[in-house]
Design goal:
239 residues; alpha/beta; five-stranded mixed sheet; 7 helices; 13% strand; globular; binds NADP nicotinamide-adenine-dinucleotide phosphate
């Protein structure tokens, strides 16, 4: 799991451990990762920390090697790490490229970096799954539907665009990996009151645990698990 030390990722890690899975808690700050691992293990789970900054390609490769040495395979990859970024830098008309690139570096290229590094380990699993944590803001259907609240959000060239690209990345990986039985889906956790929401001009209402539920569902579904889809608690979302 990436970004598993807090927020939705931490809630997913805790829940997967409760379900009996051995969880590798990826965190870019080793101390925060160790704290999350200690909490999960104190609650009766089995978790292991791993240093993982999704923007650091060498560090991600090293993490994959450590997982290979210690566990030999990976059954589930949850690409959860994500940032809202500097909102002012993303506004149409006053956007600046450095701010946009930073968002894409984590939310899109970070997912590619981690997925490419972990694929050899996923290929060793009998039933591998990849869950990409996307966002309802990525939905063009919702964003262009005048009756949906997302259509009234201020325009942004960064975060929603990065997550829409993540959705297409999900479809492309799903297509490429379906013959190998590796299932790849994107999920929208809903508007959760985590540190992610700190810079927003409004309050988000769901808990991290509520947001984690759809991630856990797609990570643990059996053979009936779809692939190449975009889901929230209520089912498929419009692209
Ligand atoms: N909260 C919402 O309303 C909402 C809605 C839709 C989608 N999402 C998505 O849900 C995911 C989790 O968000 P959250 O709400 O749980 O936010 P959060 O509380 O801010 O947690 C984000 C996590 O990602 C990690 N992270 C950020 N950049 C990273 C990097 N370069 N390498 C590795 N880890 C990195 C953070 O690590 P640090 O602790 O080191 O910063 C943290 O663990 C994100 O992908 C977000 O886009 C959130």
């Amino acid at each position: 799991m990436t970004g598993a030390n807090k927020g939705i990722g931490r809630a997913v890690a805790g829940r997967l451990a409760e379900l009996g899975m051995t969880v590798v808690v990826g965190a870019r700050d080793p101390e925060k990762g160790a704290e999350a691992v200690a909490e999960i293990n104190a609650a009766g789970g089995t978790a292991h920390p791993i240093g993982l900054d999704v923007t650091d390609q060498r560090g991600v490769s090293a993490a994959a090697e450590q997982i290979a040495d210690r566990f030999g395979r990976l059954d589930v990859l949850v690409n959860n790490a994500g940032i809202a970024g500097d909102l002012a830098a993303q506004a149409p008309g006053s956007a600046h490229l450095d701010g946009l690139r930073a968002v894409f570096e984590t939310n899109l290229f970070g997912v590619v970096t981690v997925t490419e590094a972990m694929l050899p380990l996923l290929r060793r699993s009998a039933a591998a799954r990849i869950v990409n944590v996307s966002s309802g803001t990525a939905s063009m259907g919702w964003t262009t539907d005048a009756t949906h609240y997302l259509s009234r959000m201020p325009g942004s060239l960064g975060y929603p665009v990065s997550k829409a690209a993540l959705n297409m990345l999900t479809v492309q990986y799903a297509k490429a990996l379906s013959r190998e039985g590796i299932l790849v889906n994107a999920v929208a956790p809903g508007a959760c009151d985590t540190d992610f929401a700190k810079g927003l001009p409004f309050q988000l209402t769901r808990t991290a645990a509520e947001g984690a539920a759809i991630v856990v569902r797609l990570a643990t579904l059996g053979r009936e698990c779809p692939t190449g889809g975009f889901f929230d608690d209520n089912g498929r979302l419009p692209w």
